[in-house]
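Exercise: predict the fold of this chain.
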Amino acid sequence: MKKFFALMVLSQLMIGCAVEQPVRPWEKGVLSKPEMTFGQDRLDAQLSDHTYFSKEAASGGSGVGGGGCGCN
């Protein structure tokens, strides 16, 4: 009975993930608002950069995508 219940829960979770619709073009305007960005607090971003520099002994590179391989 436990296996059956676990199988039913797992199948419901898989079905719930499978019906996700992609974002429509007219819905992308809501997602592009400034309040939807991850790095909107400049002071917090500067503190994170300082912490990263202090721990990793490296600075910069946070504003540009890519890994240094030249494949941007």
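Check your answer against the key: The chain has a mean pLDDT of 74.
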